[in-house]
Amino acid sequence: MDHNEPTDPAAPPAPDPYAIAQRIRPAATSLYVMYFRTAHQSDLTGPQLSIMTRLKHDGPCRINRLAEAEGVRMPTASNTVNQLEKRGLVTRVRDDADRRGVSVQLTTQGEAELLRVGEERTKYLAEMLGTLPEEELRRFDEAADIINTLADHYVNDRNSDSAH
């Protein structure tokens, strides 16, 4: 069954996802750009932070798997890992399952930097949200679960597609 299909035939039609996307895309883009311009307390790039976050959540991983999961080519992922390794944020380790293989994992320094940057960005986002009137902040609080669900579905769908 389509998630947008009403279960009650008398219910109004579901909102059009394309129309919603048209309404929020410009604002989402502006907020994204402003957020990353202002919350750039770290000199780590978005792709570097993304790989570090993936390693934090998933544990050690081969570079080809990182490339697949991140939706980038192998040389791009390898270059990003090399930059992180030079800074002492990740390290290469022999793969326990295949001694010929090499995995990448976060270092203690990498975990600390990821935590620091995350805290700074959470603080900045909280400051942005704090500018909303109370009623809109309450509505945004309700929408937070929906935003997280959308992100989970998108990431999980993309990763399962790249695994096949």
TrEMBL record:
InterPro entries: HTH-type_Bedaq_tolerance, HTH_MarR-typ, Tscrpt_reg_MarR-type_CS, WH-like_DNA-bd_sf, WH_DNA-bd_sf
Record flagged with keyword GTP-binding: no
UniProt keyword terms in alphabetical order: DNA-binding, Transcription, Transcription regulation
GO molecular function, a single term: DNA-binding transcription factor activity
Record's protein name: MarR family transcriptional regulator
Natural source organism: Corynebacterium liangguodongii
